[in-house]
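Bench log. Compound arrived from synthesis this morning; before running ITC I wanted a structural hypothesis for how adenosine-5'-diphosphate sits in the protein. Inputs:
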Amino acid sequence: MAAVTAAQPRSSKTESYVDNKRKEDIRQANIKAARAVADAVRTSLGPKGMDKMISTANGEVIITNDGATILNKMEVLQPAAKMLVDLSKSQDSAAGDGTTTVVVIAGALLKQCLLLLTNGIHPTVISDSLHKASTKAVDVLTAMAVPLEISDRESLIKSASTSLNSKVVSQYSTLLAPLAVDSVLSVVDPAKPDMVDLRDIKIVKKLGGTVDDTELVKGLVFDKKASHAAGGPTRMENAKIAVIQFQISPPKTDIEQSIVVSDYTQMDRILKEERNYILGMIKKIKATGCNVLLIQKSILRDAVTDLSLHYLAKAKIMVIKDVEREDIEFITKTLNCLPIANIEHFRAEKLGHADLVEEVSLGDGKIVKVTGIKDMGRTTTVLIRGSNQLVIDEAERSLHDALCVVRCLVSKRFLIAGGGAPEIELSRQLGAWSKVLHGMEGYCVRSFAEALEVIPYTLAENAGLNPIAIVTELRNRHAQGEINAGINVRKGQITNILEENVVQPLLVSTSAITLATECVRMILKIDDIVNVRIMKWQSTAKYLLSSRILYGGFFLNFLFCLFVFFSKLCFLVNNETIHMQHAHLTIQALL
Ligand code: ADP
Ligand code: MG
């Protein structure tokens, strides 16, 4: 009897242990998977970081240093690891830069969390302490930041350069940084001085030349040539431009039908009708004084035919066809005109005016440039050049980061030093604060402070320096009150990083810390993974088929036959409806 009573508590203890073990295992698996993702991008942090070559399934190759792009292209399956991919995306949309930093910080925080968990601290306590620490961190960073005036072009260029320095195209930062600053400043609306919509900056990529040939165009650039059919004009001064969304081609019937014409006179009549129809349209267009037509790409029928191009060329109207639907908004905003959806609405007041529209030869292709636009909207175009597609694409991604950096500074006008200086200062101040806090909280905040050292550590490691010596020296300098001491990766030593002009927007650093903490807290709070199977009809059929083969039971056989019968029936009914619709249309057409 005594043996039985003795055995009971032991078994219940074993059960509860197993239960906890599962939760612990899931937490650990999540943390390990997420850390693996963070480790994958760690080597690309900083100006001396490595680049990644990504080869996609369809044979496309991308060379990049951008954390968000690397993670986006990775096929991550583990749900917690996917959260890190999303984290990088959120940083991309919140700040645009710091996409590697955010993931590296999250990885370091997760490593510290694992230690705290193994020391027996409850996840909720860890999570709450992390939140507290991140709020304090934002306060510390804000106190460190230097205010900036939007008219201070030099400082804006410095921060755009910092962002570009760590990219593959870093040798062109002297050209791209001022270009990014000028393009963002030119789209800022004085009515809303802290709002920048990057959709107002259009990036056009054209193969040929080098990145040095990249230029800012005050106007529009089309990566296509003008229509050369029938010797139409390819250069137009004093242009009156219409953006049209209708087709200059004979109308089509609503339903598919064929007309058999056996008589030549009838055929002539049809052609004459067509010609008159098109001529009528072109006369209306010409009457408004329009001499440049931008024609939206049409999928229903050809936007222009050989015949209409011929007449347009005769009327000395320059034609740029196949303009994408999504570009119409940008074009009309730039030209300060209205898109025209129907020939009946074609009026002179809807046209845009420009000094010059011309086709220019560039490399092995041609582009069309519209310059000297009257009352131009607040938009700008950047024409990126490069010797190969890989360079052009990376230049575009790098420019996007630089544009985002300037946008951050326009919306929150504070600068902060780079080169690991803010992180080590945060680590020092939070470490000191943790000593004031009581109990587990202080312990967790100290771990948070230690995790932040990952940034200077990685920057030094990637630059081929001794990370332990550098971080120790950095801590020492900060303890002596040099809050702007950072890693000068070029000289391989610690200097005042503000003097080196390595500055970044405050928003990038604060959003990296808050987003990383949020993500880690979310991963910490997960203690189970539940798989839900969605029963679509295909998977139902597969399931029934496999279980039929496995068990071969009568009932399952019956169920399978019933399923097949009903799905056939559904198919027939569907087909019947389609037939009915066809018949209905045919009857309508006949009537
Ligand atoms: P992210 O994708 O996170 O922006 P980067 O590869 O651009 O990653 O690296 C950003 C980090 O590199 C920041 O911490 C920044 O302070 C640091 N950094 C950038 N330029 C320099 C430089 N010239 N010297 C030292 N650190 C730099
Ligand atoms: Mg960057």
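What the model suggests: Residues 97, 163, 166, 401 surround magnesium ion (ligand 2) (CB under 6 Å). The radius of gyration is 32 Å.
ITC booked for Thursday regardless.
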